[in-house]
């Protein structure tokens, strides 16, 4: 009866890097914005991407092409 052991390990900690999708070893995960990463590098990469996206939405023109109301 060893099914319990395997399931426990899998269920307790199975994280995958949000950038490269690699499995992250327990204790080696880096958390940014609620996501897990296998290295500082990828955490950094993700952070930059988030910032870029934020800037884009900020700079994106608001929907006022068909002016009129307000
Ligand atoms: Zn990674």
Describe the structure.
The chain is 43% helix and 14% strand. It has 70 residues and is an alpha+beta fold. Bound molecules: zinc ion.
Strand sequence of the main sheet, in spatial order? Answer: 1-2
First and last CA, distance: 70 Å
Helix content class: 40-55%
Structural class by SSE content:
alpha+beta
User: What assembly state would you assign to the polypeptide chains in this entry?
Assistant: single chain
State the order of secondary-structure elements, H for helix, E for strand: HEEEEH
The total strand number stands at 4
Average pLDDT taken over every residue? 81
- How large, in whole angstroms, is the Cα Rg? 20 Å
Largest sheet: 2 strands, antiparallel
What form results from the Cα inertia axes? elongated
Bound molecules: zinc ion
Strand content: 5-15%
**Low-confidence parts lasting 5 or more residues at pLDDT below 50?**
none
Number of helices: 2
Give the structure's gist in a few sentences.
By secondary structure, the protein is an alpha+beta fold. The chain contains 2 helices and 4 strands, in the order αββββα.
């Amino acid at each position: 009866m060893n099914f319990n052991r395997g399931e426990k390990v899998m269920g307790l900690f199975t994280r995958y890097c949000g950038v490269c999708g690699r499995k992250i070893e327990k204790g080696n995960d880096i958390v940014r914005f609620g996501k897990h990463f296998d290295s500082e590098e990828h955490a950094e990469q993700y952070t930059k991407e988030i910032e870029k996206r934020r800037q884009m939405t900020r700079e994106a023109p608001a929907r006022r092409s068909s002016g009129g109301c307000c």
